[in-house]
Amino acid sequence: MIKSRKKGNNVPGISTASLPDIVFMLLFFFMTVTSIKDYELLVENKLPSATELQKLENKDQIIEMYIGKPTYELASVLGTEPRIQLNTRIIGVSEIGDYVLSELFKKPEEIRNLVTVSLKIDQDVQVGIVSDIKEELRKINLLKVSYTVNEKIVENH
Amino acid sequence: MSRNREIPEVNAGSMADIAFLLLIFFLVTTAIETDMGLLRKLPSKEQETPIVEINERNVFRVNLNKRNQLLVEEAILNITDLKAATISFLDNGGVLTDCSYCEGLRLATSSDSPKEAIITFSSDREASYGNYIQVQNELTAAYNELRNRESLRLYGVEYLKMVKTYSSAKVSLEEKLILEERINRIRQLYPLRISEAETTFKS
Q1: What is the pLDDT at residue B203?
Q2: Which value, in Å, is the radius of gyration of the alpha carbons in chain B?
Q3: Sequence-separated (6 or more) residues with CB below 8 Å from residue A117
Q4: What ipTM was reported for this prediction?
Q5: Other residues' Cβ atoms within 10 Å of the Cβ of residue B155
Q6: Does residue B162 contact residue B148 with C-beta atoms inside 8 Å?
Q7: What distance lies between CA B107 and its chain's CA centroid?
Q8: Which residues are paired to B75 by β-bridges?
Q9: Are A102 and A140 in contact (CB under 8 A)?
Q10: Distances in Å between the alpha carbon of A60 and those of A88, A110, B184?
Q11: What is the pTM of this model?
Q12: Cβ(A71)–Cβ(A42) below 8 Å
C-alpha cells in the first residue's frame, strides 16, 4: 500500500492547460459546419434513400417543406393523415401557394428564380398528396423541386 | 498606495468546463444539414401543352399501382430489373434513324433514339412515396449510366464527375465554359425525358 502510494506521488500530473483550447477548437468547428434548427418538426420525417443524388448547393435558395404523419404527441390534435409543415406551421394543400409565395418574397430579388423547393417527404406517405403538392407548385410557377432523400450506401457485390 | 502589488492570476481551471458546456449546447441545438435529393423540373402551367404525337415504340410506360407493384410495358417487373430494362429501351437505336452512339439491340419494338424516347411514369395515389422514389431513382440511374458511358467515350471523363467539377468553386472560367459545353452536349444526346403527365393514346 505504502509503496504504491509513494509511486503514485512520483508521477507528474498531466497538464490540462491546453484542454480549453482543444474544446474551443471543437466548439468553433461545430459552430461553423452546423446550422441552428429554427423549428421543431411537427410531422414524422423518415426520408427514403436513393443513390443518384444531387447536392443542393445554396442553403438560401431553398424552401423546405416537410410532409408526413403528425408526430405521436400531436396525433390526438392533428389526426393521423399526412400533413404539410412549412416552417413552424402546419398547412393544408390549398394554402401551399400562398405560403410558398410569401416565403419566396422574403428572399432577395436576384435569387428568386433560382429557388428550389426541397420536398422532405416521409417514405410512408402516399403519392396522392405529393402529386397534389406538385400541382399547387405548378400553379404558382415554382418549377424546381428536389425530392430530398438520404444517401443509400451501396454494397459492393 | 500599494499599486505595485502583484495581481493574482485568474484561475483558468474551469475554462474547460465552460467550453465543454458550450460545445454540448451547440451539438444539441444544431444539425448538420444534408440536403441531397433528386432534382426535377415540373412542367410549366403557363404554356399551353401542345398535343404531340409520339410513335408508340418511343414510349416506355412505367406504372406503380396501389399495391406498390411495378408494371413496365404492362408486365410486372421487379424494381431491381428496372434500370436494365430502361437502359435497353433508351439505348436501343432504330435501324433507320441515325443513332451511331447507341449500343442497343436495334429492335423494331423499342425506341428509335434516346432523343425521341419518352418514359411515362404514372403512379397510383395510394402507392407509397418510398417506392415512388425508388422508381425515380432507378430511372435516373439508367440515364446517368448512359450519360457516363457516352461522356467517357467522347471526353474520357464521367458525366457525373464533370457535373461535380462544374459546380465546385475551384474551376477557372475557361474550364467552366468547356465543361458547360460538354455537359450540354451529353444532355442533348441523352435528354432526361420522364413525363408524369396524363398520356392518352390514340386508338
Answers
A1: 44
A2: 27
A3: A62, A63, A64, A65, A100, A137, A142, A144, A145, A146
A4: 0.75
A5: 16
A6: no
A7: 27
A8: B72
A9: no
A10: 17, 12, 26
A11: 0.78
A12: yes
